[in-house]
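Reopening this ticket.

The earlier resolution said the output was attached, but the attachment link was broken on my side. Pasting everything inline this time so it's all in one place.
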Amino acid sequence: MKLTIALIFASLSITVVYAEIYNYSCKVDGKTYPLRVDDNKNVLEWRGNKYSLTVESCGRYGWHAEGDGTSFTFCTATKGYAAIEDKDGNVQAECNLKR
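Inline output:
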């Protein structure tokens, strides 16, 4: 009985935390740049610029980024792979989730 009560209290104190900030390493022309997505604030930071985000239907999960006079799509796939795509769907940068 005591074990059952202890297990109930232990399970109540466990909190699931979902990552809302994603850090990627992206390659463009042989150079690597950090990319950061803050899903909570709907902001993507890339090469010194901040872009506002809206959810995009691409890959496993994706965002459409707008700002600094430009826009692009950031699509994620499985196992941490992601890509920056232009309006025609051409990959402009390949990214990997930092773990």
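Reporter confirms the inline version is readable. The CA atoms of residues 77 and 84 lie 12 Å apart. The chain has one helix and eight strands.
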